[in-house]
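Model it.
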Amino acid sequence: MELNVKSMVPLIFLTLLMTISFYTSAIQGQRIESHVIASELDAQNRPIRFKTDFTKSDPYVISWVQLRNVEKVYTCTWKWRDPENNLWREESKETAPGQATQWLFSYLPLEEKVFEKPGFWSVLFYIEGKYQFTDHFTVLSKEATTTTTLTTLTTVATTAETTPTQTTAQGGAVISTVGLRTIPEEGTPLYPGDHFTLIITLRNEGTSAGTVELNSQTPSGVELISAPPPTEIKAGETRDFTFEFLCKNPGTYTAQVTATLESVPLEGAVTLRIAVAEPNVEIRLVGVKTTPEKGVAIRPGDYVTFTVSLKNEGTTPAKTVELKPILPEGIEFVEASPPTEIKAGETKDFTIKLLCREAGKYTVPFVLNVAGETMDAGEYTISVTAPITVGWPVIVVAVLVIAIIGALVFYKKKRVPQISAPKLTVGREGVERKPPEVVGAYCIHCGAPIGESDKFCGRCGKPQND
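Modeled.
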């Protein structure tokens, strides 16, 4: 039996496209303070044009990384990949040791051949060969004449050419974005019913406290589950703001987060682009085992366990796969395997344990549930045999027959043969003999019955001690 589940579970790839995304991790004493995609640097090699969509008017794509507390020389490597994930360019640079803060960057020249592969590009960053993070950007087609500027919450800019600045509230609060991450990580497949979390880290670099409120503009295919409350950030303090979303329907969506500082709107936004793709999920039944095995008698009160093996022969994972029985009267559900995920090419066993309450022949249909959709998974037969019963009349007759047979056997064993003898007998010598005792033996010469204590035979007169 083969169960095909195609176009059933939309595959959602979370692509986080941001002008500035910050990542922090400790690598042998140094720390990645921030990383950003830009198109231009200033005289001090700091980014001044933040963007993620690039056209022929842009000379470069720049991956800029800021490190802190660099203790020794480390080799940093950038790997630029095209939309087909082919390695397009690789560049390595070494850090200068003993510096509290330093930044490095790598260029992707926007040559003519780059625009022959429009779409989502990526750049992967490594330190000493160890993966650190991935940034994404979009290369538009040759015909594209407009650009999309995505700014962070600290950016007052409304055009690509404007230099981003920090936003200062009355009283001296200065709020900056210092971190941005998602759970699960960017690029992890999401499905309807899955949750994902966006965490924005803000820091007050001013001299006084300020209250920050973040708001999310969520598309119809993604539901906002929870949002952070307005939060006061004291001078020098860093706070995380967490949003939780629920994936509902397939499609391509854009979610945007904006902010206010002391009720004053901040220009700019954090933008999430969510691309949805159709999956290829194919579930096939590859085996069924029962315990007890076929041919073993099943009585009322016995348990039967089915072990069903399912394989995903598709190319994408099948989430929340669950096998359920539809039970007739006389069969009771005990336990079953919980819903689980079957990865592409993986085979998993699902068990269902049932209790047979009454005798009879039962047909138990199984149904397969994959991400909320249900389909037939075959029917299985359980034959429960009633135990053999014996009525009271049969039991009484059997007891009487056994008693009679036992009495006859006992009587036969205990019965001793006896013989009557004359009261007086005369032997050959004319000697008067006593009456023979109860026969308990036989003459060894003529075989006549004699008493157990007789020394001579009463018939032949021969002694019995020869």
